[in-house]
């Protein structure tokens, strides 16, 4: 018991001590830690220490009232007794300029941050949460501990973590946290701001985070505002762009449409398979039924005599008339008119060859004279984009308001050296692996290369051209440094800066590793936070974003990069051929330099703006030899095959080499005439026209030549018939068929010219005219030449050496081998009873397969195919898709007419406080959150939001000389410079009306500097199109980037998604906004290529149907059969395209239009021969048509083309191999098989019945003549 009073006394004493300590701490809390500024900081020159002071707070000098209201409005009451003076407030304002410019977009964030610094600097309760741990001998506070509530720190960070830096497309914390925003958190952000190594803090401030008292200190835990809350001064909550919580749920991309399947099988495949099986069952059943019926029917031996279906049967009522329908009679009269016309014309041509040939020559020369005005278009924009297309009009709008998109020269650099190396930061932190390409020695070698490129000198018209003459220099004339997007620009393109290190003989504290790591997280920084304090901003005044300068990294781990990307943007010029010529001359020297550059440690892929066009031209020149060989083979074949040699002795008499050459010259004359006529009208040619049309006209023209010549060779002259009459009669027989095919093709091609694609339209125009001119020359000039050659042959004169003559001998006339083969073997075989069903089944099966895969043919043109096999650009394309992480820039252009001076006009565009939730910037930002779907990679750079931050009165950015009113840059120290706007509630609001336009030109001319990083000259000088005399804002753009686009479908999808987004923005703004990127003009065609293809081919087929109906003598069913067969060939072409990986684009569409034309040649001659045949049933008529026309079609088109096509496979050009060799081969093979195999079989089943009027007229015309015997043969 005696112990207890002692213990109680001890407890009471301990309690008194605790209470008194708390009392003394509370009393002490009413005192300051410092007051006023003393000596200059040793660690950070230009900054000062605060003076040690533990007395009571002192009243603020009246001079500082406005400053206190601006910085710390919470202390602006009563006598304003604080622990800071006016100098400290001014220092605080200077230190907070950078955070102010980037974080004031979000009022809650900036309020919380100011709270942190105001409490630190001026709080009258300083000693409650601050401890001066070091005071030097001159009474300077050189280190303090700052106790901060963890709750406050977290709330401040959460309010600021999403704030954007619009001009640099990154989070603001990336610029203010010393590391990438994703690695930043509440504690390391505050630690960084208070770290002496950040270049702003004059002495160490050690933050201690706790929500409970620590060592007798009560942590500062003031009230904070969430970014979703408004402030008491009326400031609204932060925008969605700067505050994720204000956005609601993250947008989700719509689910991808599931593939169309039935029972887990591709729907088209299953449907066509079932349809084909059903067709086979029905068809085989019908064939077997018909066969059984015929077997059971007993035919009368007098059937043929009593067959009243035969117009000339003995059972006919009147041998002088026939029971023909009105259409049949009309058709016969039309046919007879054509026959008479062509017969008379043919006779005239043979009788007056000199007149006809001379007249033809004069006309050809006159037409071809236009070639002196010929222009060849190689500009890809002119080739692929119609002047009236949406993309072209948007490009023209962009170019006229902002200037054309810059040209680029680009290097993608890798190294064959393997392995990575580890960097261990001196100040702690985990080890950082660096890729081999970021080794310092490699960087020095790359810098040497970059400096050599900068030193390239070209010559243009006697003048020297350097990079400085043509490069993009956004800050000129104040700063003439060229824009070079290179990781070396983090080191100011200097070997010395790259070698800059801070350390001693034992340790390296900071070097290029630490500077690189800082710059990739804060590329717009003017002062890194390492001990180096080197700028990251490029020498040209703009940031170098790591996703543009590095490649081959994962996520945002730029240190793992395996490639460096160096881009030299060059000025592009509209309607200035001299300056454009200088740019082209420099690019030419650049390409030459890079081709000769050798470094064993560097592997370089490169490209200049002119590279693709240069390589296409080189490819065209190198392919000339291939094309010449191809045509030479066809010419030799034609010259030799036209002749029908009866015996070795008469080889030179019976050959038709000279006639073949003349026929080829006629084909070439028709091509040159077509080119010349359109050149007179100033319509430019394209490479497609030059490469494709001779092939097409050769197919059509040679076919007609073979038909004329071989029909003449098989014909026997009638008694008392002269040569001119015989050739006239032959022309009367075959010319309607030639006219049918040529006119069908001409109409089809001319209708194809309705296409919006310039390449397709130009091809169709030139091809249609060339085919028709070729037909006219063949029925005139060629017929005259045939007559002359026939006279030579009859006179036994040698071909070519026509003066020499062989003695007259009796020769037996025989048919050609090919004719005998078709007549005796081929035609009878394919029309056998058991062969025909197999042919139908096979062809319908191929058709079913092709229909099933039509929707699977890829759309687009792989740009790699347009390059030669040995092109350096192929390496560049390969590296582009392998290493690059960002696609092309995309601009959202707001067209002229929006009133930016009004709050309504501002709110529909901007992305900051008070802006609409569906504003332009906000919608693009939302799209960037689902970039895998929208292809929008980043938040857009917004000149309007940066202008609002720049013009704020709290900022030091917007100032002017009060004497002259001229703009005063933030870096200028001059007492006459005053803030643009007053520090009043209205002054803190956005500028409107005249204020808006008064300060905007200043913003657009302000160069960013260390005191004001928001200057708009570098980032936005071209983004705003001001009216004359700065009276208003016209068109403007907001730029971001697409995600990386590798294949044609990626580019097409990017264009489609950007347009959808732009349309949504236009609707919400009620003002026109469009998306523009440099590749849109090339890929727009693919948005409608399927529709354009269907329309072009349908129009061509319809025109062929109409022309065929008329020219076959109004035989509707014949025209239907021709159209069905051509339709099958076209559909099967799509099957071949899918099998052979040929994509659908303008080149393949041209080939498909051409396929439509050539298919007419394969089909129309056979169908016409079938329609005028007088055989007794469809099988025999089909056999006769195939025997007589098949050999001419086969030798005229198939064999002629086959040799020439095979040579195209040897071309170095991939586009030739894919789009010409493969497609031409498919066109010829499909056309030949359908025209010579399927069509006769189809005619044998469902061919049109015989035209009684035509047969009657033919038999009446030939009755009792030798012609009757020949027809029956």
From TrEMBL:
It is found in: Endomembrane system. The keyword Lipid biosynthesis does not apply. GO terms for cellular component: endomembrane system; plasma membrane. Coiled coil: none annotated. Keywords: Cholesterol metabolism, Disulfide bond, Glycoprotein, Lipid metabolism, Lipid transport, Membrane, Signal, Steroid metabolism, Sterol metabolism, Transmembrane, Transmembrane helix, Transport. It is a multi-pass membrane protein. NCBIfam families: 2A060601 (TIGR00917). This is SSD domain-containing protein. It comes from Perca flavescens.
């Amino acid at each position: 018991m005696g112990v207890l009073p002692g213990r109680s006394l001890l407890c009471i004493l301990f309690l008194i001590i605790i209470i008194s300590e708390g009392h003394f701490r509370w009393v002490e809390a009413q005192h300051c830690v410092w007051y006023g500024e003393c000596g200059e900081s040793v660690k950070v020159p230009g900054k000062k220490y605060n003076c040690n002071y533990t007395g009571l707070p002192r009243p603020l000098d009246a001079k500082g009232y406005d400053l206190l209201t601006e910085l710390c409005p919470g202390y602006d009451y009563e006598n304003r007794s604080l622990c800071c003076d006016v100098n400290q407030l001014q220092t605080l304002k200077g230190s907070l300029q950078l955070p102010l410019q980037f974080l004031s977009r979000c009022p809650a964030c900036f309020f919380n941050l100011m709270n942190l610094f105001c409490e630190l600097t001026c709080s009258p309760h300083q000693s409650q949460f601050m401890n001066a741990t070091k005071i030097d001998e001159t009474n300077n506070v050189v280190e303090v501990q700052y106790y901060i509530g963890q709750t406050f720190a977290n709330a401040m960070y959460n309010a600021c973590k999403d704030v954007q830096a619009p001009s640099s497309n990154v989070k603001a914390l990336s610029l203010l946290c010393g590391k990438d925003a994703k690695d930043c958190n509440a504690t390391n952000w505050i630690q960084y701001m208070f770290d002496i190594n950040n270049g702003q803090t004059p002495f160490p401030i050690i933050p201690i985070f706790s929500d409970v008292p620590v060592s007798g200190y009560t942590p500062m835990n003031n009230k904070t505002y969430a970014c979703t809350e408004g402030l008491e001064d009326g400031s609204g909550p932060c925008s969605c762009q700067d505050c994720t919580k204000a956005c609601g749920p993250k947008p989700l991309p719509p689910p991808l449409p599931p593939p169309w399947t039935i029972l887990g099988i591709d729907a088209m495949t299953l449907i066509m398979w079932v349809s084909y099986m059903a067709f086979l069952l029905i068809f085989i059943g019908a064939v077997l039924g018909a066969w059984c019926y015929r077997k059971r029917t007993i035919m009368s031996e007098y059937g043929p005599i009593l067959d009243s279906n035969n117009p000339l049967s003995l059972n006919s009522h009147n041998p002088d008339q026939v029971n023909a329908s009105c259409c049949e009679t009309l058709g016969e009269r039309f046919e007879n008119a054509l026959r008479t016309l062509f017969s008379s014309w043919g006779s005239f041509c043979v009788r007056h060859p000199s007149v006809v040939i001379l007249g033809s020559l004069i006309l050809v020369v006159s037409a071809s004279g236009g070639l002196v005005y010929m222009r060849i278009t190689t500009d890809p924009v002119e080739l692929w984009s119609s002047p009236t297309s949406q993309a072209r009009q948007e490009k023209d709008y962009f170019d006229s308001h902002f200037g054309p998109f810059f040209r680029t020269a680009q290097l993608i650099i890798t190294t064959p050296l393997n392995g990575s190396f580890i960097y261990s930061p001196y100040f702690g932190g985990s080890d950082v692996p660096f890729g081999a390409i970021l080794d310092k020695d490699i960087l020095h070698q790359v810098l040497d290369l970059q400096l050599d490129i900068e030193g390239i000198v070209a010559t243009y018209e006697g003048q020297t051209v350097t990079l400085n003459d043509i490069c993009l220099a956004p800050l000129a004339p104040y700063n003439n440094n060229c824009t070079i997007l290179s990781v070396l620009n983090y080191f100011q393109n200097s070997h010395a800066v790259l070698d800059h290190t801070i350390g001693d003989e034992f340790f390296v504290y900071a070097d290029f590793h630490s500077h690189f790591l800082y710059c990739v997280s804060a590329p717009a920084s003017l002062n890194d936070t390492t001990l180096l304090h080197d700028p990251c901003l490029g020498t040209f005044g703009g940031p170098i974003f790591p996703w543009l300068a590095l490649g081959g990294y994962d996520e945002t781990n730029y240190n793992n990069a395996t490639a460096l990307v160096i881009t030299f943007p060059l000025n592009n010029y509209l309607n200035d051929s001299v300056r454009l010529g200088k740019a082209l001359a420099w690019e030419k020297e650049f390409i030459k330099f890079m081709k000769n550059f050798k470094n064993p440690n560097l592997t370089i892929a490169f490209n200049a703006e002119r590279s693709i066009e240069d390589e296409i031209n080189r490819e065209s020149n190198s392919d000339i030899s291939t094309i010449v060989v191809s045509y030479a083979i066809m010419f030799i074949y034609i010259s030799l095959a036209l002749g029908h040699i009866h015996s070795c002795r008469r080889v030179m008499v019976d050959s038709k080499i000279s006639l073949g050459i003349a026929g080829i010259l006629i084909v070439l004359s028709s091509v040159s005439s077509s080119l010349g006529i359109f050149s007179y009208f100033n319509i430019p040619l394209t490479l497609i026209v030059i490469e494709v049309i001779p092939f097409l006209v050769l197919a059509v023209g040679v076919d007609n030549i073979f038909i004329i010549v071989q029909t003449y060779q098989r014909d026997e002259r009638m008694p008392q018939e002269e040569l001119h009459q015989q050739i006239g009669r032959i022309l009367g027989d075959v010319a309607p068929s030639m006219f049918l095919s040529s006119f069908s093709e001409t109409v089809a091609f001319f209708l194809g010219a309705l296409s919006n694609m310039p390449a397709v339209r130009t091809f169709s125009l030139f091809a249609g005219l060339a085919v028709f001119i070729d037909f006219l020359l063949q029925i005139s000039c060629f017929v005259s030449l045939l007559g002359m050659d026939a006279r030579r042959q009859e006179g036994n004169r040698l071909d070519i050496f026509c003066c020499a003559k062989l003695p007259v001998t009796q020769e037996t006339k025989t048919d050609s081998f090919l004719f005998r083969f078709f007549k005796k073997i081929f035609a009878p075989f394919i029309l056998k009873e058991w062969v025909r069903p197999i042919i139908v089944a096979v062809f319908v099966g191929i058709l079913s397969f092709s229909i099933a895969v039509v929707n699977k043919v890829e759309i687009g043109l792989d740009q790699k195919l347009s390059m030669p096999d040995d092109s350096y650009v192929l390496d560049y394309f390969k590296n582009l898709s392998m290493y690059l992480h960002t696609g092309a820039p995309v601009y959202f252009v707001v067209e002229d007419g929006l009133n930016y001076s009004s709050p309504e006009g501002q709110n529909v565009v901007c992305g900051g406080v008070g802006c609409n939730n569906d504003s332009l910037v906000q919608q693009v930002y939302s799209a960037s959150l689902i970039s895998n779907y929208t292809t929008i990679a980043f938040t857009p750079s917004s000149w309007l939001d940066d202008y609002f931050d720049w013009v704020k009165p709290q900022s030091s950015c917007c100032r002017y000389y009060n004497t002259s009113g001229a703009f005063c840059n933030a870096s200028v120290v001059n007492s006459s410079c005053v803030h643009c706007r007053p520090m009043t509630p209205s002054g803190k609001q956005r500028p409107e009306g005249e204020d808006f336009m008064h300060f905007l030109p200043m913003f657009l001319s302000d160069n960013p500097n260390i005191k004001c990083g928001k200057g708009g000259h570098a980032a936005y000088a071209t983004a705003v199109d001001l009216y004359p005399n700065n009276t208003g804002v016209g068109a403007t753009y907001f730029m971001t980037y697409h995600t990386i686009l590798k294949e044609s479908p990626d580019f097409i999808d990017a264009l489609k998604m950007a347009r959808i987004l732009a349309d949504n923005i236009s609707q919400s703004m009620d003002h026109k906004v469009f998306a523009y990127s440099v590749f849109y003009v090339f890929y727009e065609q693919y948005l409608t290529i399927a529709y354009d293809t269907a329309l072009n081919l349908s129009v061509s087929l319809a025109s062929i149907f109409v022309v065929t109906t008329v020219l076959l003598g109004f035989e509707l069913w014949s025209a239907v059969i021709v159209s069905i067969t051509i339709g099958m060939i076209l559909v099967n072409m799509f099957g071949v395209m899918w099998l052979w990986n040929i994509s659908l684009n303008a080149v393949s569409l041209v080939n498909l239009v051409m396929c439509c034309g050539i298919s007419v040649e394969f089909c129309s001659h056979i169908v016409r021969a079938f329609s005028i045949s007088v055989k007794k049933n469809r099988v025999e008529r089909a056999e006769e048509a195939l025997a007589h026309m098949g050999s001419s079609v086969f030798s005229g088109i198939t064999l002629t083309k086959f040799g020439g096509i095979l040579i195209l496979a040897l071309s170095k050009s991939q586009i030739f191999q894919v789009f010409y060799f493969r497609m031409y081969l498919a066109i010829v093979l499909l056309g030949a098989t359908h025209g010579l195999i399927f069509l006769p079989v189809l005619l044998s089943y469902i061919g049109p019945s015989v035209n009684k009027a035509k047969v009657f007229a033919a038999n009446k015309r030939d009755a009792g003549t030798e012609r009757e015997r020949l027809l029956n043969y």
